[in-house]
Amino acid sequence: MTASKSVLAGLIGAGIQASLTPAMHEREGDAQGLRYLYRLIDLDVLGLTADALPELLQAAQRTGFTGLNITFPCKQAIIPLLDDLSPEARGIGAVNTVVLADGRTVGHNTDCLGFAEGFRRGLPDVAKRLVVQLGAGGAGSAVAHALLAEGVDQLFIFDVEAERAQALVDNLTRHFGPGRAAVGTDRAAAVAAADGLVNTSPVGMAKLPGMPLPAELLHPGLWVAEIIYFPLETELLRQARALGCRTLDGGTMAVFQAVKAFELFSGRSADAERMQAHFAELRG
């Protein structure tokens, strides 16, 4: 995609009023001399559900949007509506970024790259023999791919919907071979034996406060990672830090998925360090 002098982008999701993504994109656009406008399309505010995605996507095309970010609960529901997928998005089975150009819609996944970059920076030398992941939705699919690509030996997936967890495990087995991923059956036993715990469920978000598992299952030998960044310190991370666990918040993933999305929307390289500084400033 060639660089344009103006970008009109948006974020489609539910309960996204606190998102820092618009400000991150617009500030980087300002720094590069672009006319860059980024709008929230909040299903909750509009009184809509993911069923409205076809209408919203069509409206974005007709009104000249350059691109859309897609978040909970739409990362998988958007796929059948798109003209094409990047190889990564097709492999993961989830889309968080859609480029609108030349009358076509192409889905990408920048969550996988974003989590992997945050993991490498924030937990560079942790044990990766056995990891427990909570959540198998769109973000969970991207994170699971990243974890196995980053060298996790065995990943146990837990989800409130057993069929969704199994579908993700089947996908991971196709990409990484048998034995690397399995549907978890005994959460307490798995966490007790695990080196790491990753929460990709929405539990812990400002709109869904609480813990995705009982606090008493945590232990000091565990590292704990979140993908939620609002709040930056979830109850899970607070409890884990109190035990002395090494932790990773969702901030780095938020920044690095935005870096790649900016590049897809604008056709220009983003300054990752500048966007990290913007994120830190916006967080206060």
TrEMBL record:
The active site is at K75. Keywords: Amino-acid biosynthesis, Aromatic amino acid biosynthesis, NADP, Oxidoreductase. GO terms for cellular component: cytosol. Pathway: Aromatic compound metabolism; 3,4-dihydroxybenzoate biosynthesis; 3-dehydroquinate from D-quinate (NAD(+) route); Metabolic intermediate biosynthesis; chorismate biosynthesis; chorismate from D-erythrose 4-phosphate and phosphoenolpyruvate: step 4/7. NADP(+) binds at G135, A136, G137, G138, A139, I227, G250. Shikimate binds at S19, L20, T21, T71, N96, D111, Y229, Q257. Its EC number is 1.1.1.25. Pfam families: Shikimate_dh_N (PF08501). InterPro entries: Aminoacid_DH-like_N_sf (IPR046346), NAD(P)-bd_dom_sf (IPR036291), Shikimate_DH-bd_N (IPR013708), Shikimate_DH_fam (IPR022893). SUPFAM superfamilies: Aminoacid dehydrogenase-like, N-terminal domain, NAD(P)-binding Rossmann-fold domains. One of its GO terms (molecular function) is shikimate 3-dehydrogenase (NADP+) activity. Residues 11-98 form the Shikimate dehydrogenase substrate binding N-terminal domain. GO terms for biological process: amino acid biosynthetic process; aromatic amino acid family biosynthetic process; chorismate biosynthetic process; shikimate metabolic process. It is an enzyme of class 1 (oxidoreductase). Homodimer. Involved in the biosynthesis of the chorismate, which leads to the biosynthesis of aromatic amino acids. Catalyzes the reversible NADPH linked reduction of 3-dehydroshikimate (DHSA) to yield shikimate (SA). NCBIfam families: PRK00258.3-3, PRK12549.1. Belongs to the shikimate dehydrogenase family. This is Shikimate dehydrogenase (NADP(+)). It comes from Pseudomonas oryzihabitans. The lineage of its organism: Bacteria, Pseudomonadati, Pseudomonadota, Gammaproteobacteria, Pseudomonadales.
